[in-house]
Amino acid sequence: MSLSEFYSGMRKGFPIALGYLPIAIAFGLLAKIVGLSIQSSILMSAVVFAGASQFIALNLLLAETNHWQIIFTVLIINLRHFLMSAFISQRINKKSRKLLPLLAFGITDETFSLISLNLHTNNNLSFVLGINLSAYIGWVAGTVIGVAVGKGLPVIVQTSMGIALYVMFIGLLIPGIKKSKEKLAVSLIAVGINSYLYWGPALISSLNKGWKIMITVVITCTLGSLIFKGVTNNE
Amino acid sequence: MNNLLGLIIGMAIVTYIPRFLPFILFSFKQMPSFFKRFLYFVPYAVLSALIFPEVLSATNNTSSALVGSTIALILALLEIDLSLVVIGGILGVYVSELLF
Q: Which residues of chain A are within 8 Å of residue B3 when distances are taken between CB atoms?
């Protein structure tokens, strides 16, 4: 462990914490409405640490869905993280192998985005753990605030902060696709496929977010690797 | 809701498996070059899919979402610090929600 790398990761992860906060507060509020105890709500955020899954679990609980069915749905939603962890597993510095299980726990769409685009300049495990911890604090603290305070942020603040994670994704994506026409092409293909999955036939658009992302990523990256055979892997 | 703890533990396990399994499967192996190229594009495909079209419904109305993301797009093209891109986007939405 390198403490300075760890702190630098924590600073890097700040935008994620900021983006998670209002969503986690909303989760805490909804959990209370669904009837979860304070302890259960906080425990769920602390051990599951997956936004979309937790919201869907609440909806299914409200509909009195069988618990095994909820668990299965959550598994499906999170299969996409397999691709993200596969990416990180190839590039992370494995000097502190013992900490890899801890690192894996912190992989979310948001931490992955930030980590993957920093790995070429910094593949230090402490740095990545710092990013993950920032995100985790934002998520758990937000949940605590939501269940304890019992009311959300002012509507306009909540709405404005709702854009935070999306603009972070934009901030991460643009510098990459600006410099590489392969990445730009791949990005446009992904947007096209994902838009079809959202606005296409009802059978497709009714799929959950996890499926949509996974389908988009698998098709896009397959096409990308078939079309652009010369991309370097040294980045 | 008597078995809520079981549900939470089950959810924790199934969210952890896809996150951790690749570290066991791929850490020590050389991958075929097709899969390497595939992975090379994963961050960009993931980011693009996360952004569009969901960003359009990230706020109360599409126009404030568009204002926020356009500001972010411009700031990102200038390659300024990520935190400023995020703050710029949030402020863009805040101001347009106040105005419209």
A: 67
